[in-house]
Amino acid sequence: MVSPYAYLGIVALVFGLFVLFMKSQIRRIVSVKEAKEIEASLPSSELTRDLKEFDITMIGIGAMIGAGIFVLTGIAAGIAGPALLLVFLFNAIFTTFTAMVYAELGSAMPESGGGYLWVKSGLQNNFQSYISGMMNLFADVAAASLYSLGFASYVMLLANEAGWGTTDSIIVYKLVAIFAIVLFALLNFWGSSEMGKIGNIITSTKIVIIIVFILSGLWVILKEPVRLDEFSPIFPEGAISVVVAMGLTFIAFEGYEIIVQTGEEVENPSRSIPRAIFRSILWVVPIYLFVAIAALGGISEIDSSTPSWMVLGDLGEEGLAHAAKAFMPFGVTLLLFGGLVSTLSALNATIYASTRVAFAMGRDKFLPDPISRVNKWRRTPHWSVFGVAIFVMIISISLPIEDVAAAAGVMFILLFLQVDISLFFIRSKYGSRLIYGYKMPLYPLIPIIGIISKLGVVIFMIIHYPTAIFGVIVWISVSTLYWFLVARKDFINKPVSSNIGEFLRKEV
C-alpha cells in the first residue's frame, strides 16, 4: 500500500513536470511586435476588438473554476476516493494535448466559432461541419445549464442556512436557474467589453475565496497530520473509478474552447489566445489539486469510521460547502458566496461561447439567418444570445445536474476528437501558408495521444452514464434530421464555404 506522503509526493512531482512543460510552450509564442504585425493582416470583423489578453485569460479561468470545483468535487470524490487528485491531474494532462491544438489553430485562424470552423476548414464536408457545430453548440449550452443549476444549488443551500422556509422546492430551484440564465443573456447582449469586466471581477473574487479555503484546509492538516490517513488507500473503489470520475469532471478543463471564441474580439489574437489558453490551465490545475487535498483532509473526523471521500460523495454538490463549514473561518457563508460567484462567472463564459458558435453557424447558413444578425446598437449577435438562452433553459429544466455534467463532457470530448483530426488535414492542405502565433512541438504525436486518451474516456462514459449518452444521441439525431429536412437544400452541389483563405499568406 502506498503511503499518503509518497502519494502526495508523486502527485507533486508529476505536477512540477507538467508546469515545466507548459512554460516551455508559452516560450514558443510570438512576441508582441510579431503579434501586432499579424493582426494588421487579419480580415476585418463585424465585432469589436475590446478584449485584452487578461480578459480572455479570466474568461477561461472563470469557465474552468465553476461548477467543476464547487459542485462536482464532492460528487467526483464519492466516485474516485482519494484518487480525486489523480482525476484532476490526469484530466489536465490529457486535455492539454487538445489545448495545444486549440492554441495553434486559434493563433492562426482567430474567428468566432472556434473548433466548428476548424473542422469545416480541415474536413471540407458540409454535413461534418454542420454536425461538429451542433456538437459544439450543445456542449457549450449543456455546460451553461450545469452552471445555472450549480448556482441554483448554492442559492438553495444559502436559503436553508438562513432559514428562509420552503427552499427544497424543485420548482424554486429551477426558477433560480432560469433567473441566472436571463441575467447573463442580457449581459452578453449588452456587449463583450462589459461582459469581460464583470467576468474579471467575479473570477477574481472567487479565486480569493478558494485560496482562503485551501489555506484553511491545509492549516488544519498541518496541525493534525493524522488527517493524511484519509489519502490511503488511493483506490477504494478500484482504479477504473478514476476514469469514470474523469469523464464527469472533464468539463472542468474546457475553458480553452471558450477562449478561442473571442478570436474576433481580442487584441493581438495570435499571441493573446495561446498565452491565455496555457496561462489559464496553469492557474486552474494547482487550484483543483489543493482544493481536493483541503477537502479530503480538512472535512475528516479523526474519530470517525467513515472516510472523508465517502462523506463528500454523500453530500454531492454540497460537499465543498460542508467541508468549508468544518475548518474555514465563516466557512459556509464565504464558500456559498464563492460558489455563487463561481457558477455565475462560468455561466457568463459559456453563454458567451454558445452565442458565438451559433452566430458563426448562422453566418454559414447552417442555422436560420436571424441567428447571424448583429445588433446595430450594441454590435452583439442579439438573436443568437436570446436563442441560446432559451436552449439553456430547456436543458436546465429537463435534466438533473449530474447527467447535465456527463452529457456536456461527452459532447466536448466528441468535439475535441474532431478538432484533433482536423489538424492533420489543415497542416496537410495549408502547411506553412498559415501564419501561426504558436505551433506545437512533437507533431503528430500530440494530437494522436489526445485522440487515444479521449476515446478511452468516452468508452467508460457510455457504460456509466447511460442517461447522458441517451441525451447526446437524441441531440445528434435531431440535428441530423434538421440537416436533411431543412438545412441540406442550401448546400446541394455546393462546395464547403470556408474563409480560411483570408488567413493564408498571400501568394507572390
The gross shape turns out to be globular
Helix percent reads over 70%
**CATH homologous superfamily placement:** Amino acid/polyamine transporter I
Q: Mean of residue pLDDT?
A: 84
Low-confidence stretches: none
Order of helices and strands: HHHHHHHHHHHHHHHHHHHH
What is the second-level CATH architecture?
A: Up-down Bundle
CATH class: Mainly Alpha
Number of domains: 1
CATH fold description? Amino acid/polyamine transporter I
* SSE-based structural type: mainly alpha
**Biggest sheet character:** none
Q: Evaluate the radius of gyration.
A: 22 Å
Summarize the structure.
With 508 residues, the protein is mainly α. Helices cover 71% and strands 0% of the residues. It is built from 20 helices and no strands.
Structure description:
This protein has one domain (4-490): Up-down Bundle (Amino acid/polyamine transporter I). The protein has 508 residues and is an all-alpha fold. It is built from 20 helices and no strands. The chain is globular. The longest helix is centred in the N-terminal third of the chain and has 37 residues, at 126-162.
Considering the chains and any ligands shown, give keywords for the structure.
single chain, 508 residues, mainly alpha, Amino acid/polyamine transporter I
